[in-house]
Amino acid sequence: MNLQTIESAITAYPICAYAFIQIQDIHFKEEVRHICRTECPRYGKSWSCPPAVGTVEECKKRCEAYEGGFLFTTMTEVSDIENMDELLSTRAEHEKLTHQIRELFQNQQQETLTLSTESCAVCQRCAWPDAPCRFPDRMLPCMEGYGILVTGLAEQCGIAFLSGNNLVTWFSLILYRESHSQERV
Ligand code: SF4
């Protein structure tokens, strides 16, 4: 894949920071999964989160089947960082952008696995566990659910994420490999 083509193309999008990473840069931690299990209200509520995504080991293996990764952030200002509704309302734009960036990779004949922050919010009520995911192509599994400490990975890659009181940073990670087939989750 031509990384320069991707780098040229992303200048047209409001990406705040990005890094191309090696798959071995990603650390999969049971401790992160433990936080999901014990502290996140979305645990066991979505196809995009554990336990539906499989064990941390299974997530690691799935990611290791890819050749490289593209980690990027967007940043949005809110009037009050404590207002969770306002904060979460900024996420849709980031997800939309994530799909657009994923398409850049797919246009380069790359098969992708795209992870994002937070549990999938495409449907009002997730089909899990009674029926398959309704929109597998729109659903982006949560990075933390895979056992990835997002802030740790960002620090490793030199991506800043604490930029001020009312600034929200959203992350996405696109894993890619040569293929002509569709994304598999
Ligand atoms: S697209 Fe719908 S069914 Fe699939 S994970 Fe998201 S909320 Fe659940």
Can you describe this structure in just a few lines?
The chain has 185 residues and is an alpha+beta fold. The protein has helices at 3-10, 30-39, 56-64, 84-89, 91-106, 150-157; strands spanning 17-21, 68-77, 110-116, 167-178. Residues 46-48, 120, 122-123, 126-128, 133-135, 138-139 line the site of iron/sulfur cluster (SF4).
Please describe what this structure looks like.
With 185 residues, the protein is an alpha+beta fold. The chain has one domain. The chain contains 6 helices and 4 strands. The protein has a 4-stranded antiparallel beta sheet, sandwiched between helices. Bound molecules: iron/sulfur cluster.
Rg computed from alpha carbons, rounded to a whole number of angstroms: 16 Å
Secondary structure class reads alpha+beta
How many domains? The number is 1
Coarse morphology:
globular
Global mean pLDDT: 92
